[in-house]
Amino acid sequence: MELDGLPRLPARSVRVVDSRCELAESPLWMSEAAGLRWVDAVRGELHALRPGGHERWPVAAGVVSAVAAETDGGLVLTVDDQVLRRADGPGVPSTVLARLPGRPPGERFNDAKAGPDGRLWAGTVCPDLPGAGALWSVDPTGELFPHWTGISHGNGIAWSPRGDLLFFVDSGDGTVSRAAFDRDGGVGAPEVIARVPRADGIPDGLAVDARADLWLAVWGAGCLVRLRADGTPTGRVELPDRNVTSCAFAGRGLDLLAVTTAADDADPSRGGSVYLLDVGRRGVAGYLFGAVEKRSGDL
Predict the structure, then answer these.
(1) Is there a catalytic annotation at residue 204?
(2) For the segment 49-81, what is each residue's pLDDT rounded down to a tens digit?
(3) Is residue 292 part of a domain?
(4) How many domains does the chain have?
(5) Is the separation of the CB atoms in 259 and 272 below 8 Å?
(6) Which of 15, 167, 232, 270 sits 20 to 30 Å CA-CA off 150?
């Protein structure tokens, strides 16, 4: 997939949150009242954009790579090699739900989302061991299930509107894959549907809209790329920040695309904002950890 030459897609900026994150990731729409959440993975912070404004608070030491919602309004976070549970708010304790087994050494969680089966699905990375990552799922009891292996840098995860396809990004290999998925937690073998040349950028976070198109954040390219479900690129949305990390549909009608970014490698004073864009599409409500088929957006 060559990014140069892709047509520019219309996008209207509705709001820019100058959150000054070092590495904003994992945007999560909760509900109209609760608003939007995201993490600053490097600083160990959770951010909230509610009707009353933008807030942030520390949640853990370590790499806080993703946040998902539970059925009771609580949150699940991936932090280094652990999955933590906590209430949604500042100054509350976290409990450890699960921990990676420690083999291979150095494996940590990266992007993660609750799936149609009520489990948390997460890719992992071993910084010193390319290809030693995996795709894991975690059930509400804390039991870990390994699925795919041979992953270099597990990243964006999303499901088709019907929940029968899983899409997955391996940033290390520069690929987007898909696989059959069923609500009993079964996932088929991955099929690579798109590749981003390293010279163009690094594929990162992922969202799916109601028409089953994918929206892929591309680190280093300052853009989102829209793809069909078969991986065919159809256009790009330009952003002011170079390191675009992830995206998720948000708003009462899921008609805004919330896009997270990271600080610029060359100029750390730039980047790290969150953009709310009207891209002319609506999204699909996310799932809740611990509930088969129950979706977020109306907690």
Answers:
(1) yes
(2) 999 999 999 999 999 999 999 999 999 999 999
(3) no
(4) 1
(5) no
(6) 232
Among residues 111, 117, 204, 241, the one annotated as catalytic is 204
Which residue in the block uniquely carries the two structure tokens 């539970």? Answer: 70
Model confidence at 137: pLDDT above 70 = yes
- Which H/E stretch holds residue 46? strand 45-50
Q: What is the pTM of this model?
A: 0.96
| Residue 161, both tokens | 């509107």
Where residue 23 falls among pLDDT bands split at 50, 70, 90?
very high
Q: Are 126 and 153 contacting, i.e. CB atoms less than 8 angstroms apart? A: no
Residue type, 182: D
- Domain with 127, as residue range(s), is 12-278
Taken in order 124, 126, 130, 134, the sign of the CA dihedral is negative
Q: CATH number, domain at 261?
A: 2.120.10.30
Residue 70's SS3 state is strand
User: What does the DSSP 8-state code read for residue 290?
Assistant: T
Digit-coded pLDDT (tens) for 249-260? 999 999 999 999
Please give the Cα distance from 263 to 271 (Å, whole number). Answer: 4
Instruction: Tell whether 141 is covered by a domain.
Output: yes
d(CA 3, CA 282): 24
In a domain, 298, yes or no: no
For the cut 90, the answer to whether the pLDDT of residue 297 exceeds it is: no
